[in-house]
Amino acid sequence: PWQPAEEKAQLLQNSEYQERMVESTFLYLTLDLPTAPLYKDEKEQLIIPQVPLFSILAKFNGSTEKEYKTYKENFLKRFQLTRLPPYLIFCIKRFTKNNFFVEKNPTIVNFPITNVDLREYLSEEVQAAHSHTTYDLIANIVHDGKPSEGSYRIHVLHHGTGKWYELQDLQVTDILPQMITLSEAYIQIWKRREEDETNQQGA
């Protein structure tokens, strides 16, 4: 629950409410989608909500608080990146399990496929140690359909030619980069751009 700053400061003096900092390694970053209300337009057609990638990346800015609940307590966590690896995997949290079934959030994430700069998600002292903080998308896994009976498609960048391809089972087809951003992205792989690399993706 929300509390005035003075009360919050007093609580933080209490050992029970002391902030703790824990450093941990990660294999991928989980990006949470906002709850998706499905609006209907005047023709009674469903309108699927959209969210910018940078809105869901805000979880890692060091100041956004996320509430976690266990059976006996509630606590808040803040996340901040302390290192940027050569490759980053984003897992967009589309599926939620409850006691009876799995629900899928269909929100579309709007993202650029090149030049995603993650510098602001590093603390100031860590920023100085990172000369390369910009990433380009190299693979995008999409989930289509219902959670229980859906299918997967993969978008992959061919590094040599800078062309994108869509793979589904044994089918391989060309795809325009701008079409990738219209899909229900589920898992993404990003490659850090090094200084001497040129952008061949043309998008």
UniProtKB/TrEMBL annotation:
GO MF assignments: cysteine-type deubiquitinase activity
Keyword DNA-binding: no
UniProt xrefs under SUPFAM superfamilies: Cysteine proteinases
Domain USP: 1-193
Cited InterPro entries: Papain-like_cys_pep_sf, Peptidase_C19_UCH, Ub_carboxyl-term_hydrolase, USP
Biological process, per Gene Ontology: protein deubiquitination
PROSITE patterns: USP_3
The protein, known as: ubiquitinyl hydrolase 1
Natural source organism: Thryothorus ludovicianus
